[in-house]
Each structure stands twice: as structure tokens, then as C-alpha cells.
Amino acid sequence: MADNIIVKLENVHHGYSIGSNRVEVLHGVDFELAEDKWCCILGASGSGKTTLLNLVGSLEKCDSGRIEVGGRDLSTMNRRESAMFRAQSIGFIFQSYCLLPELSIRENVMLGARLNGTPAAGAAEKADFLLEKVGLSHRRFHRAAELSGGEQQRAAVARALVNDPPLLLADEPTGNLDENTGQAIMDLFCALREERSRKQSIIMITHNRDLCRFADITMELSGGKLRDFQEK
Ligand SMILES: Nc1ncnc2c1ncn2[C@@H]1O[C@H](COP(=O)(O)OP(=O)(O)O)[C@@H](O)[C@H]1O
Ligand SMILES: [Mg+2]
């Protein structure tokens, strides 16, 4: 039986206009990710990796083509539906962590659960559970801005997992970290994935080919198209 497909892109085109200048970034991307698979995407800076991830994460709508996530056509959702969908189904991890600096890391993690409708007490419980898993229990009442980069990314991993999403989207998650700290983040990521018996689909963008050894498939974005890089 064919694997279930969680992410499907068909002939996706996307670009940006600035004044009279038009930049075409994606020129007909076709892609399928089977459930519970981990895909790494490589590509030069400016090749459109973040654009692609933002489209799959329903942060932007593609100009043309079709994107389905979990069987849902993203183009049919209004803003409110997209926001609900993101909160329920997708965990984001960004290169620059994107925590709210004035909130404690516990509040940052709780926020993801609150946006998904979890009452405050339940959200706090989930946040504490995950912050222990990522080794930050002792720092949970510290403001995000007081933490190091590696600690902030550990908190961001906890935030991404708080709603137990079927799909994780990570945009150069170790890109701002030194090698050892980046390795620690990847070890944590892999350990958490093992804990849930690899029942999670991941798209991870990276510049670092070493990280691709963790993935089931590696693709490369170039010339506005996504191609197989190597298959394990
Ligand atoms: N919001 C935007 N407005 C205008 N141009 C953008 C915008 N986002 C990205 N771009 C342009 O699209 C191209 C691809 O960007 P991006 O997806 O960020 O690439 P990557 O993540 O691979 O470095 C770049 O030329 C970038 O300048
Ligand atoms: Mg990028």
C-alpha cells in the first residue's frame, strides 16, 4: 500500500514584486512527503528555501499551483482558518528562534498551546513537561532574552512540539549556533523524535550537509525547482 502523503505540492509558482521589479522564486515545484518521513532541503542562499517553507506552513499563499498539507488544500483557507490550521498541525522552528523576548520561556511555550485552545493550567503543564525534556526546567521563569542562543533554540523546540503537531517545519535550526551547540540541538531533536517512535513528519532546511544524514530523504532547491539530492 502506498504511504500516506502529508505534504503535496503540484506545480507551485511563487514570486515577489517590489515596485516594478518582479522576482520569480519558485518555478513549478512538485514534491510529496510521506507521513513520518524526515526531509532535508539544501540550497544556496536566496534560492527560495524559506519561501517554500512559508508556503507549506500556510504563512503565505502561493501564486499558482496547489499545496496540500494533511489532505487539506491550503489555498481554500481564509486567514483565520490558516491560523487555526497552523496552531493545530504545524510546529515551526526558525533560525533566529523567534521567541517573544519579554516573556518567560515557559510563557513562550505555553503560548503555542493557548493559541490552540488549551486552558492555561493544561498549557503550563505541557510547557513544564517539554521544558524538562529539553533540559531547561531550571530556566523556565527567565525571560527568553536572558538565554543563550542554544538555550533559546531548545525552548523553541519545546514550543514547536507543544501541540504535538504531525508536521514540523525547521528553517536552518542550527544556522545561528556554533558547531557543538548545533550538534546538541540535533541530538535533542533526534531523541525527541525517537521518543515518539518517529511518528512525525519533518521538513528541515539547512546549509549543512552533515545534518542530512539524519533525514530519510534529501532534496535540493535550485533554479526554482526541487530535485532529489540523494536518497538513502
Ligand atoms: N517578502 C519578500 N519580498 C520580496 N522579496 C522576497 C521576500 N522574501 C523573499 N524574497 C526574495 O526571494 C528570494 C528567495 O528568498 P528566500 O526564500 O528567503 O531564500 P533562502 O531561504 O533560500 O535564502 C530572494 O531573492 C529574496 O530576496
Ligand atoms: Mg532562508
Structural class: alpha/beta
**What would you report as the Rg, rounded to the nearest angstrom?**
17 Å
DSSP summary: helix tally: 6
CATH architecture: 3-Layer(aba) Sandwich
**Measured distance between first and last alpha carbons:** 20 Å
Q: What is the chain-wise order of helices and strands?
A: EEEHEEHEHHHEHEEE
Largest sheet: 6 strands, mixed
Q: Helical amount among residues, as a percent range?
A: 25-40%
Q: What is the oligomer described by this structure?
A: single chain
Q: Give start-end ranges of low-pLDDT stretches.
A: none
Under CATH, the homologous superfamily reads P-loop containing nucleotide triphosphate hydrolases
Number of domains: 1
Q: Tell me the total number of β-strands.
A: 10
What is the top-level CATH class? Alpha Beta
Question: What general outline do the C-alpha atoms trace?
Answer: globular
Averaged pLDDT: 93
Q: What proportion of the residues form beta strands (DSSP E)? A: 25-35%
Biggest sheet, spatial arrangement of strands = 6-7-8-3-9-10
Characterization of the model:
The chain starts with a strand and ends with a strand. With 232 residues, it is α/β, with parallel strands linked by helices. A hairpin with a 2-residue loop joins strand 9 and strand 10. It is built from 6 helices and 10 strands. The chain has one domain: Rossmann fold (3-Layer(aba) Sandwich). The protein has helices spanning 49-56, 79-89, 105-115, 120-133, 149-161, 179-195, and strands spanning 5-18, 21-34, 38-42, 64-69, 72-73, 90-93, 167-171, 201-205, 217-222, 225-231. The chain has a 6-stranded mixed sheet with strand order 6-7-8-3-9-10. Helix 3 (105-115) packs across helix 4 (120-133) and helix 4 crosses helix 5 (149-161). The site of magnesium ion has 3 residues, from helix 1.
